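Hey, I'm writing a tutorial for new members on how sequence and structure tokens pair up, and I'd like a real worked example in the thread rather than a made-up one. If someone can provide the structure for the chain below, I'll link this post from the tutorial.
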Amino acid sequence: MMSVSWWVSVTLFAITMTGTPGPNNVMLTASGAMYGFRRTLPHIMGILLGGLTLFTLIALGLGALFQRYPLIQQGLQIVGALYLLYLAWRIASAPPPQFDATGDARPLTLWQAATFQFVNPKVWVMGLTLMASFLPAQGTLWANALGLAVFMEIVALPCISLWAGFGMVIARFLKTARAWRIFNVTMGLMTAACVVFIVK
């Protein structure tokens, strides 16, 4: 049975890590503005699913594998940087929703968002710190890891959802095609800027 201070510490850690700016939250803001909250839900669920899977795998030895074979980590960093730049271009070049006659633009799917977590450096730092600092020593490893990861994602759900909601609020002030283009380019540049944290 974990102490109250342990639960408080994990909760504060989860809020701090998932509620602050990063690639996921920047993209959720853009998606909330462009597509609304309902169409952004698969993106949100994908982030949670990907994080849950990654955190559990880190505790079961994936983090140690990266330490032993740094080339794997470097390869993922390159893939992550390229994919993030692609997503940044998609956001920056997306047409305003009310002026999009083709209907081709769409938010990230659940599986796209889940896969992205494996190349998202902030999620890796989050998972490594979470498991190193808060994984209980007593009990079954896989059960403790899964339970801790599930709790992390429960706390994360309202935190990341707020960013999609923030995007919806911003969308109310974007009344013209020019305003939408400025917003999309800004969000695209912010997403691209996250590459700095991958390649540094």
